[in-house]
Design a protein that fits this description.
By secondary structure, this protein is of the alpha+beta class. It contains 3 helices and 8 strands. The strands form 2 sheets. A 5-stranded antiparallel β-sheet has the order 1-2-3-6-7. A 3-stranded antiparallel β-sheet has the order 4-5-8. It binds zinc ion. Zinc ion (ZN) binds next to α3.
Length: 156
């Protein structure tokens, strides 16, 4: 496993704006990428990471919250309910925080690393993380949706 370099908006915002491609075959390289993304997310104290953030334009996301560790290949949001507002940050925009409005709960359908389809329903932080990371796969950054940016004194 390896900690990968995280692409920031200052390094290459144009790259972060690219659309990621579907994974058509789960090769050993894809599994290594998943492992490396988990290690990278943990090393950066993040709760989510999309492959584009480590320089790979594939539809792959990892998330870790109190609910556990999740690996998503080709994730799609199939259900959204309610709304939540709260602070949101991104490992690609270090030191910045914004107030966003997201669904309270979402259901995501994806493939696991063995190619089996599964669904996860998450609320609160997990819902926010799933929306945020899946947005990355389409080149969308949370600042596109922000209600307003937050000062350091407003973030706990
Ligand atoms: Zn992000």
């Amino acid at each position: 496993m390896a900690v990968l370099k995280i692409v920031t908006d200052k390094d290459d915002e144009e790259f972060l704006r690219k659309k990621s491609r579907e994974v058509t075959e789960i090769t050993p390289r894809i599994k290594t990428l998943l492992d490396d993304m988990i290690e990278t997310m943990r090393a950066a104290n993040g709760c989510g990471l999309a492959a584009v953030q480590v320089g790979v334009l594939r539809r792959i996301v990892v998330i870790e919250t109190e609910e556990g560790l999740f690996e998503f290949i080709n994730p799609v949001i199939v259900r959204k309910t309610g709304t939540q507002e709260g602070a949101e940050g991104c490992l690609s925009l270090p030191g910045k925080w914004g107030l966003t409005k997201r669904p309270k709960c979402v259901t995501v359908r994806a493939l696991d690393r063995d190619g089996n389809e599964f669904e996860v329903t998450g609320c609160d932080l997990l819902a926010k993380a799933m929306c945020h990371e899946i947005d990355h796969l389409d080149g969308i950054i949370y600042t596109d949706k922000v209600i307003r940016m937050l000062g350091a004194d407003e973030v706990e």
